[in-house]
Write a structure and sequence with these properties.
mainly alpha, elongated
Length: 160
């Protein structure tokens, strides 16, 4: 722990946000399970009497798993910003959630192509069945890429 002086009240805000995050995740037992931190460490992260603060990686793991950005919301507020759920973006323009979904779909389809081709090439020869499976996986990847391309085209202002 460093000896850098923090602005007045910041440590209290960090501790309060940590307690809110632990509660949002279902309590210390869940936090322990997700982070591997000991009961004592989790208690020190939350306790005002201790200088220990929750590490950034643990905040990321917990906020992702419980889908409650309690700590990040507090940090954004410190700089005059606020978090807005992606669903509130509105309008006809695709939002970030759409693009994240596209990314996951494209990555999943690409990994199926890679895995299928790796399996097919493992013995040094590709059978007709393996070739058909590879073609099906490639077609699926092409469909996912087309969906992503169309959505990006809307934002870019052009036709797909």
């Amino acid at each position: 722990m460093t000896t850098i002086a923090l602005p007045d009240g910041l440590m209290a805000m960090i501790k309060a946000a940590t307690r809110a995050l632990v509660l949002a995740c279902g309590g210390a037992a869940t936090v322990k399970n997700l982070t591997g931190a000991s009961d004592g460490q989790i208690s020190r992260w939350q306790g005002d009497a201790y200088p220990d603060v929750i590490p950034a990686w643990a905040v990321g793991v917990l906020e992702f798993n419980c889908q409650q950005p309690a700590f990040t919301r507090m940090m954004a507020g410190l700089t005059g910003h606020r978090l807005t759920p992606i669903a509130e973006e509105g309008g006809d323009t695709p939002g970030s959630r759409d693009f994240v979904g596209d990314l996951v779909s494209v990555a999943g389809a690409a990994s199926k192509v890679t895995a299928g081709m790796s399996d097919a090439l493992a013995d040094g020869k590709v059978t007709p069945g393996e070739a058909k499976g590879g073609l099906a996986n490639i077609a699926s990847l092409e469909r996912e890429l087309t969906v992503a391309k169309r959505r990006l085209s809307v934002v870019a202002g052009g036709a797909a």
